[in-house]
Input
Amino acid sequence: MKKNKQLSLVEVISMAVGTMIGASIFSIFGLGAKIAGNDLPEAFILSGLYALAVAYSYATLGGKIISNAGPIAFILKGLGDSIVTGTLSILMWLSYVISISLFVKGFAGYLLPFIHVESTPLAIGLVEVIIILFFTALNFFGSKAVGKVEFYIVFIKISILLVFILGGFMTINWGMAKPSFNAIHSSGLLNASIILFLSYMGFGLITNTSENIKNPKKNIPLAIVISILFVLIFYILIALVTFGNLPLSAIIEAKENALAIAAEPFLGNFGFILITIGALFSISSALNATIYGGANIAYSLAKDGELPDFFERKMWFKSTEGLYITAGLGLAFALFFNLGAIATITSSIFTAIYIFVLISHFKLRKEYGGNGIVIIFNLILLLAVFVALMKYQWESQRSAFYASIIIFLLALIIEYLFRKYRDRKMKVDKIDAN
Output
């Protein structure tokens, strides 16, 4: 087997930052503004703290359990081969499926205003179908160039957003960006923080490539912490510039393409075009990476209990069935759920996986390191986030609440049937770097 070039610390950070500062910030910024109002920068800070709580366990375990299975390897090591571990591996695949629907929603939100087409349900649905079919067909025929230009993709995205930030600070109205700390807005701040938690979840990709990272024991923890802190600062700056240049009502009205509208006051039509192109570029990149890379790993892990080499991507799960199932389910979620519902469903799945990572870390703390009190505190925090998320779904996105419950139960049933009729055993290779 040809050995892949190992990734440096800078390359790993670039990969994680590119994943986090991508589709989700462009897609759900308007949703966050609608929920949090002027407190959106503070909501990003809170959600960043949630991410750091999870990162403590990811950094500790990721530097010592070297496996491209990432969180599933941690859980398998901590909880053993069980129906719970298998269910979580299926949920991991489903999180990628639902992420696809989030990306195509965001793509439609930016594309239609850009080409001056009214965002009717029919127009949005057509764009979602076309973009899913396009990337499914692209994958079927193969495309090797995409993975080679990831650094340049990240560079372009960051450059566009830096133009947005620097230009926005020249005309910012600090009075408009002032937070609204009061009892009325506190619930909105908390609700937005648990949804925006989704915007930080790309840091987990670092542990999914740990076998290909130079000096993983040192570089994985560093990459995780640095990427989260970098993205946290970036999100705060983007939020301040947006609220300091555009009234809250206009941000909420813009919905999915809020950042493009926010660029117009200080960059004019050029700003609208620049941010729109950046958003379409970012969302396409994220969608492509999810279909090509993430989904095949997670699906193969969930179905076979094995993890193929991350960078080889020889075939889709030994056939094309995984491609069609992943793309088809992603399209179904996009067509039947709105952006807010998709965001909360994705967050609930990721948070459930994170909770079990923290439980596994607590069990493994004596062998792999970690402060038990800190882990318990972080676990309580994540449990509170999960409960708050489900409460928000029940009160504001009832369809998302039922969908989340059905997804959890469906994953459990599928895993039970695999174990009963296929004698499934999970076999994830791990390298202990103690």
In short: The longest strand covers residues 65-66.
